[in-house]
Specification:
With about 260 residues, this protein is of the alpha/beta class. The chain is about 40% helix and about 25% strand. It is globular.
């Protein structure tokens, strides 16, 4: 009986690790492919009232605003929420969580989560998300993953280790790992759909290392282990012709899991 509790505590420890790196997260994490965001919202979209749940520093929030959504952001971490409000002062941004959403019943047409859905306790969050959605509304999770079908990216994943580039961080792993858990709210939603959208981000070796340093698995490492891990990644990038000098494009995809509320 202790294992589920231990797993819950470990997930919570990872989920709450980002606040200490909020400024770096805002600077180095990628935003989301607009085509992926439009697909996540549905075709046709049920409406323009969108909740960005677990919004972090507003990476997805900004893209939603750019495609014309009337977006409300909800984020539990005070440091991340402060960074979001600083970057997007015109967006309504509220403290709250997937398990306790500070919005009325049937008040949004879509709920989106950027690199966050896997942190939610869906036994509680599923009914809560269903509560704030209109009938027929959309729940979608978006993940930015590295494209390890490219040889040097596959090498980067091997060198980095699973604490840095984990099972949801590559296309095949994402397809296998993402689903709407059956506990709680899954019965309130229809069949899931998955889609992937090619995306790339301009990087230098230093900025890529800085971005990887904001991963939860890195943030919770002991200081010495974290330094050894990042030095190993830096050495790998220095030895690859694609990444050794100047700027390069990191091949990525924005992957989307989408369901509709019944």
């Amino acid at each position: 009986m202790t294992r589920p509790r231990a797993e819950h505590d470990e997930r919570l420890r990872h989920a709450l690790s980002f606040g200490a790196a909020a400024t770096s997260y805002a600077e180095h994490r990628p935003d989301y492919a607009r085509a992926a965001v439009r697909w996540a919202l549905g075709d046709p979209a049920p409406g323009v009232r969108v909740l960005d749940l677990g919004a972090g520093t507003g990476k997805l929030t900004a893209t939603l605003a750019a495609v014309g959504a009337d977006v409300t952001a909800v984020e539990p971490d005070p440091a991340m929420l402060t960074e979001l409000r600083r970057a997007l002062p015109g967006v309504r941004a509220l403290p709250g969580s997937a398990e306790a959403i500070p919005l009325p019943d049937a008040s949004v047409d879509a709920v989106l989560a950027g690199n966050a859905l896997h942190w939610f306790d869906m036994a509680v969050a599923g009914p809560e998300i269903a509560r704030v959605l209109v009938p027929g509304g959309i729940l979608a999770g978006l993940w930015n993953v590295v494209d390890d079908r490219v040889d040097w990216v596959a090498g980067l994943a091997r060198v980095s280790g699973s604490a840095v580039i984990g099972p949801r961080d590559t296309p095949a792993g994402w397809r296998a790992e993402t689903h709407l858990p059956k506990a709680g709210g899954a019965a309130r939603f229809g069949s899931p759909e998955q889609a992937e959208f090619p995306y790339g981000q301009r990087r230098t070796a230093d900025s890529l290392v800085a971005a990887l340093a904001t991963r939860a698995g890195v943030l919770v490492m002991p200081k010495r282990e974290r330094q050894v891990t990042l030095d190993r990644i830096r050495a790998f990038l220095a030895g690859e012709p694609e990444t050794a000098d100047g700027e390069f494009t990191l091949p990525m995809l924005t992957c989307v899991l989408r369901v509709r509320r019944l």
